[in-house]
Amino acid sequence: MSYEWVSEIKWNADGLVTVVVQDWGTGKILMVAWANEEAILKSLSGGRACFWSRSRNKLWLKGESSGHYQLIKDVYLDCDGDSLCLLYTSDAADE
Questions:
Q1: Is the pLDDT of residue 95 over 60?
Q2: Cβ neighbours of residue 74 under 8 Å, at least 6 residues apart?
Q3: pLDDT for the residue 2
Q4: For the chain, which domains are there?
Q5: Tens digits of per-residue pLDDT, 31-44?
Q6: N or C, which terminus of the chain has less Cβ within 10 Å?
Q7: How far is CA 10 from CA 35, 36, 44, 47, in A?
Q8: HEC-encoded secondary structure of the chain
Q9: CA distance 8 to 59
Q10: pTM of the full predicted structure?
Q11: Measured on CA atoms in the order 84, 88, 92, 95, is the torsion positive or negative?
């Protein structure tokens, strides 16, 4: 998979981009998060959603504490290049 499109992202002043997280099957929006380039590349290479936690000031692998990871199905860069839509499925049995 090519990650060249990551260079087209328009980062905010803090080096972050907005990520809208949407369920692959239902279309339901789960959350809005932030990501830096490291989080995006980790997500793409590992297949699990990773974000930047502004409150903890560190990378945040979604599901790290619960064990219910968001498995990435696809990622889209919006037409302005300033936000992403991350489509996921969960490995949680109850979702």
A1: no
A2: 24, 86, 87
A3: 72
A4: 16-90 (3.10.20.810)
A5: 999 999 999 999 99
A6: N
A7: 12, 11, 18, 23
A8: CCCHHHHHCCCCCCCCEEEEEEECCCCCEEEEEEECHHHHHHHHHHCECEEEECCCCEEEECCCCCCCCEEEEEEEECCCCCEEEEEEEECCCCC
A9: 21
A10: 0.89
A11: positive
